[in-house]
Amino acid sequence: MTSLLHPTRAVALGFLLAIVFGTLLLMLPLAHAGNQSAPWLVAFFTAVSAVCVTGLVVVDTGTYWSTFGQSIIMILCQVGGFGMMTAATLLGLMVNRSLRLRTRLVTQVETHSLGLGDVTNVAKVVLGVTLVSELIIAAFLTLRMYFAYDMPWREAAWSGLFHAISAFNNAGFSIHADSLMRYASDAFILLPIMMAIIVGGIGFPVLQDLRVKAKDPRHWSLHTKLTLTGTGLLLIIGFVAVLFFEWGNPKTFATMSMSDKLLSAAFASVSSRTAGFNSIDIGAMTPESWALHYFLMFIGGGSAGTAGGVKVGTAVILALLVIAELKGHSDSEAFGRRVGPSAQRQAITVFVLGSALVVMGTLVILRSTDFPTDQVIFEVISAFGTVGLSTGITADLPESAQLVLTALMYFGRVGTITLAASLILGERRMPYRFPEEHPIVG
Amino acid sequence: MTSLLHPTRAVALGFLLAIVFGTLLLMLPLAHAGNQSAPWLVAFFTAVSAVCVTGLVVVDTGTYWSTFGQSIIMILCQVGGFGMMTAATLLGLMVNRSLRLRTRLVTQVETHSLGLGDVTNVAKVVLGVTLVSELIIAAFLTLRMYFAYDMPWREAAWSGLFHAISAFNNAGFSIHADSLMRYASDAFILLPIMMAIIVGGIGFPVLQDLRVKAKDPRHWSLHTKLTLTGTGLLLIIGFVAVLFFEWGNPKTFATMSMSDKLLSAAFASVSSRTAGFNSIDIGAMTPESWALHYFLMFIGGGSAGTAGGVKVGTAVILALLVIAELKGHSDSEAFGRRVGPSAQRQAITVFVLGSALVVMGTLVILRSTDFPTDQVIFEVISAFGTVGLSTGITADLPESAQLVLTALMYFGRVGTITLAASLILGERRMPYRFPEEHPIVG
Ligand SMILES: [K+]
Ligand SMILES: [K+]
Which parts pass through the membrane (chains A, B) (predicted)? Predict the structure, then answer.
């Protein structure tokens, strides 16, 4: 890198600055509902959770913070979501250029850097998509809240805007203490929110393909095809599994009408991979559903969007590799394209390091609490995948454990995208190769 | 395959036959301490556990079965361990020939099959190593039990032989209800057993290198070097982590002397990866130690030995891949050799399918019991890795869950080695290649 600041480091630093700034703002007495200064850990935890669009909270957003405080949180979510989408897209452009250069066998000059034109261009489009989506959803929610819930206009508009921004950015913050449980059977609230979650979480590269080549699906990139297929599959798996696991649970689905069951399962499936709203009580779900959540939360949403986790594309690449092996194919293929070996190696690396982070986080938090392991694992994966769902223990964790969660949110958010990019930008051919040997497997 | 029976299918069938035969024998009233016929599920579970050298039990081996029944169990362990070591070594030979043929670009005639000479040769050496190791360890244990525990000769010899065979085959069966907890501070019992576990579990290919090229470590195979390094690292990690996690636990280490702590931690580290004896109460350990056990039990021991799990070599290949990626190297290297890409793909496949099996098993058992998730995960990984440790719930699980455990033991034992072999034997070059594309990761 010839630039002063490596782009992946710039992203990491940018998020850090936003967190520091957010913490300071949230410590202002003005941000507190009781006009006191919030303790630094509460402000810090909330700022990290907002900037990393996670939604884990140690205090109730709606009653602890003033409207000013809630606005800060909303803006931090917006900045975090927008920043991540833009930064990840720009890193993706750089990666693509670097790959193109390499395949063209051009001399390896360091031309990874982007012009100002690219940056403003991407930022503009991202901003446009974001604002349009958020305003439409906010309008929907506001109207519904005004007409069906007898909210005054002001309150309905504030709630609609807050939840629209929170949903599009997959932030999962709600000004209701029960997240969205009061709307559990209201499709007019939940469906727009699900739309916002999916659009925001599918990732910018996919949105671009859908926008620019809407009528030409054959020319969508392999990434778009893989992400859409993977997302569809995960939505179906999550829907069916939640329905199956909760069907007879007296604390959740058993007493619901058929249509409410379907709506709740659909919402849980959409929201669990990274958005982090809940329309039913997570703490009351079966342990099977929790285990399902581990899986969905760890995978997360699409690359270069507002979603967290190791990303759908990463998981699909791994799945394709395993399928190819089982078929006895030496190439991993999909949609008439071959997945390059370096993409496979990066996918495995992201997966393994993500798992290692989760294991470490779990072990460290288990040391300092008496909460059962399954709840701790839930909390840790929720933080790593910047999901924000909780079985209800976040506020009761000791301070050290809360700090571990902030670290997981930060590395889960910033780490996965910068890691993959820096792996690709840093890769180089070996000057010599050792002789190959085939060690025994299994 | 031109042969009537594909070799990997022959292995799977052989284990199935041994299980059926063992179940029938254990149902004889003669096998039961009270001279009654054991229920079929008890006999079946015990036979699967013995043939798959796991050691999970639903009844107490020492009091439920007669000496005849215990002998059946011992013989099943011996047959299972010997069969697995021989079969896996032979599959390994076939795989090596197939790889050599391919690199020599000889026409792809189906010459995977082995001559009778190979089979008897390998079987002879495996039998020799097994008998010599077992007799030495049995002698040690018998002497110690006779002199230090005032056992009559007959009883001491029986106990020594049983535990030596159980240890070398990593079977984990004990005729004591408390496994080896009564010997928790007796290094003269635990150290020989640890030796037997390591020698039996390191795998035949490594033993051969050590035996034949003892003075020429530079010419050991990459597999041997990777397995020895990985085993050493895992032993150290397990030792330090158990010590750290249990140090202040009043139910385990807190009341022990310093030397007992060290001995117990060492024994837990050696035994947890697959042998399945325990010198301290697993159920009384901290949740952190359980989580550590998930990790160690899943990895298991060396390939083509009596150990289970996805194997140390598999884990090391994955680790090397991640390390190479982080360094920006396109090749994954160790000891001046390059790990072939097909070995990497196989390692990932074994890892992913093993994880999938564990997740599935956990979900299914969670459906049918109220035991906490952490204990269920422990049981499932213990069965998959044919470890045999338990937090104490095996006997109390419903019958359906016990059947799931038998399936996990069988697939954990037979699946990992046949899967890898069949992947390699089945791999073929593609007649054409699709254009490569690099989807986004992370
Ligand atoms: K979230
Ligand atoms: K075992």
Answer: 43-65, 72-95, 122-143, 187-207, 228-248, 294-326, 347-366, 403-425
